[in-house]
UniProtKB/TrEMBL annotation:
Any Pfam family: DUF1611
The protein, known as: EBNA-1 nuclear protein
Phylogenetic placement of the source organism: Bacteria, Pseudomonadati, Pseudomonadota, Gammaproteobacteria, Vibrionales
Residue ranges constituting the D-glutamate N-acetyltransferase-like N-terminal domain according to the UniProt record: 47-124
Protein's organism: Vibrio marisflavi CECT 7928
PANTHER family assigned: DUF1611 DOMAIN-CONTAINING PROTEIN, GLL3100 PROTEIN
Domain called D-glutamate N-acetyltransferase-like C-terminal: residue spans: 131-328
SUPFAM superfamilies: P-loop containing nucleoside triphosphate hydrolases
Highest taxon, organism lineage: Bacteria
Amino acid sequence: MKIAQPYLLFLGDVTDPLSAKTARGILKWRPQSCIGQIRLTEETVSLDLPEYSLQQAKDEGVKTLVIGTANSGGIIPDSWKQTLIQAAEMGFDIASGMHQRLSDIVELVKLKEEKGIQLFDVRHYDDQLKVGTGKKRSGKRLLTVGTDCAVGKMFSALAIEKALNENNIQARFKATGQTGILIEGSGISVDAVVSDFISGAVEAISPEFSDHDWDVIEGQGSLFNPSFAGVSLGLLHGAQPDAIVLCHEIGRKHIRNLPHADLPSIEDTISTNLQAARVTNPNVTIVGVCLNTSAISLEDAKTLCADWSEKYQIPVTDPVRFSVKSIVEKVAAL
């Protein structure tokens, strides 16, 4: 999946700021790719980007209209369809992270054939994949893993990629989820892949390379999450990581949406991920822990990171409040 940039971010008519988190993620990590925004009403959430009509965006060289919002159920509302169809008529590619496929809209499928545009349903993957082999391949890889889902694995991977490049260590972010794909413009949403092919999909996302130093691969789920552990294990084997970074949210009481399921300890999460990763890379090591410390004060977060760094003898930080410099230094030494 290769999505052409730059983007016009379509915000539809949603009024809940949380519904625009996909667009906010794209803007934060790839601001140079976001030419402007298009909204259907004045009440729609805004990212404070220039307001463009489709024609103005076309004149500015925009390649893809990206649906940057979500709603309950992931259904594309009728109120959005006119704008999407008009964009297709004008020759824009369209990308969506909604559950409903763009290809379910008959007019868009017809225009795809007529105009030669691309429709990217990034939550879905229909192309042929090979099963994973675990065969050693060139290049170094870092994978973010977690105690649970939604603990900051994508954010941490992007922060580490950015910091590596700023320190003249050439790194590339490899997306495995819908928001990451829209940020990077490429990738495979591994939770949409048939289980037999997950490790093969990750091998395809990060094949052999020698033209840069590191691939930083976005993690998904957790080996300890009863709902998504299969995805996490397949990703771990396919990534063949040389380094892993553990992500965890301070204050979380149990596995997300499963109050009967306890969170694993940090020690168990580290040891289990390393053991599983050794199936495809016996030399894997952990290079740091990224925490979401938003539930505690800044001073308490500083103290906790320092205490855990001493306890686990690896860098521990909050990539939002602090930096990932200590992790980058560890990576640079590998």
